[in-house]
Amino acid sequence: MRRNLTLDDIGDLLELPLVAVMGLHRPDGSILLTPVWHEFRDGGFNVWVSLEGQGKLRLIERDPRISMVVCESSGDLRGVEVRGEAKVLRTGYRDIVRRTSHRYMTDAAAADRFADSMPDDGPVIRLEPGNLRIWDYAE
After folding, report:
1. For a disulfide at 53, which of 11, 38, 49, 121, Cβ 3.0-4.6 Å?
2. Domains in the chain and their CATH numbers?
């Protein structure tokens, strides 16, 4: 396994439609692991939050430290773990929903319908890498 890599070393990994797993701190000290659609843009991760996901926001308001893992389950088994303090943004929601919908859904018309069904504004979790752990099994 190769370690101590940079984002450039793992190529297109963060552009692939891989579901990330986000870890948030619960009040009792346990960790909530939740799958999320994400985009890596402008040096950080964006995750939009639906109405059903508002619990994530309460956890972040209480403790903004979060972790996310994006990894492959076949091929070179590349992966990234990022840890840092999340910010909750209230800008760019509809654009982020549209971009991620097109990335994760194979039918462009369905992706547009999904994005159009979402509210114009909403919360976006922004995680800029504080600590990165990057690996692959390419030899």
Report:
1. 49
2. 7-135 (2.30.110.10)
